[in-house]
């Protein structure tokens, strides 16, 4: 008789994985999407000290970020905000090719013209097909890496919801959508951006973040393909 019933342990494991993925990628997206402020620093200190962090505590990326936050205890919040804001702008906003990497847009890295209008349109249409739009207060391009990571987080959350409801066919379809999205719009270019950004990173927090981003994307691909 075909095994058409998923054991409770398998269900709980799958649900936990999707929830963890959603939380992790929402966090990764939030760093790219928001200039550092007091609330972000407080959140970082919480995420990288709590027992149930969505990231591996023993990893090198975790240690770099946690070490930076620990070593900066003597600095005022205002000093940290200033230091990290300058670094964030240099790494992620593409202010000048002289002292920063090209900004993390899929169209910049993954198109012939270096702009990627076709990619932007295709990604926008994909968001729309999933019933998603961009908030009016969002000033990022549709192909900005932070927006792409947000999309993965949303799909993973939906997969968790479908798993909880027992809709495993829908969950499998979402898994396929995430893998296709990764392979088409993120993985072909993100390593180049991360390598370039590492050359300009000056704080262990962002050095660690870039490593964490790379590790998380690779682990997600492996997990989905498994």
UniProtKB/TrEMBL annotation:
<protein>
    <submittedName>
        <fullName>Putative component of anaerobic dehydrogenase</fullName>
    </submittedName>
</protein>
<keyword id="KW-0143">Chaperone</keyword>
<dbReference type="InterPro" id="IPR036411">
    <property type="entry name" value="TorD-like_sf"/>
</dbReference>
<dbReference type="InterPro" id="IPR020945">
    <property type="entry name" value="DMSO/NO3_reduct_chaperone"/>
</dbReference>
<dbReference type="InterPro" id="IPR050289">
    <property type="entry name" value="TorD/DmsD_chaperones"/>
</dbReference>
<dbReference type="Pfam" id="PF02613">
    <property type="entry name" value="Nitrate_red_del"/>
</dbReference>
